[in-house]
Amino acid sequence: MILVLRALGVGDLATGVPALRALRAAYPRQELALVAPRALAPLVDLVGGVDRLVDAPGLGRLAWPGPAPAVAVNLHGCGPQSHRMLARLRPGRLLAFANAGAGFGDGPPWRAEEHEVDRWCRLLAWYGVAADRTDLALRRPDPAGLPTGVSIVHPGAKAAQRRWPPARFAAVARELARRGHRMVVTGNPAERELADRVATLAGLPGDAVLAGRTDLGDLAALVAHARLVVCGDTGIGHLATAYATPSVLLFGPAPPAQWGPPPDRPWHEALWVGPREPDGPDDVHPALAALDVPDVLAAVDRVGRAASPGVPSPRRAGAPVATRR
Questions:
Q1: Residue 278, SS3 per DSSP
Q2: Which of 94, 232, 127 is nearest to 172 (CA)?
Q3: Is 236 helix (H, G, I), strand (E, B) or coil?
């Protein structure tokens, strides 16, 4: 049994895909169990190679009924909590970053500024497991009645600092609709009011608001068959990368160098104006607030040209980033 801890959200799981695939290839005859929130199950199915999902909404004691795993892999963090969570299961071997506080000195050192995909590939390389950091694609689900060819604006994000102002999202959506894009506004149930506000300001019909009406599997299918995604630094942006759907991602406070799509794929563009001092935990981060509607519309034009006929198809690979400074 190979037990892998990644008890985080959509973007975290998506950036861990190359590492998960590498572990599947390294241990082809072992059962691979992933410790992650149960809500991610539809996405785990699209990764492939995971035999069992073990529900864990966060760190703490894991209700593990089986025998001690042969190998436990910490793809969650640098410890000590996550290290101890796995160590309690008494695995035959623990693959993790070195952490003196957890009494674990075997792994490589943690690098705070490293890209999240590279972090886990480097961890596995330390233990002799080769991972391909470009292996980000997910299985493309059938749209099953969902609209296809739509352009998505996704105004929500977990942290207030990562939410671009709704009026600016609305201005982008309104202009894209004027240009002939079929617009939809996505989000989780808690973001329905925000999505309604964006749609109203943009002059979109009520049925354009899909926030709260799609589960994670539906959202993946919607992105997989979409024309464009415009969003902040949040999970749906990683889905656009996984499906090579043209996207414009608005970054702040974290830079694209840590969480953005691969920089060699011009059908994705990550906009960022560089480091800025935050105003407060509940305010839009200054690096994000500095981005205006013309910046985003210009980026939409660029990714559209990159994905046009005559340009090598993005469907062959994952997805990119061009950083505006």
A1: coil
A2: 232
A3: helix
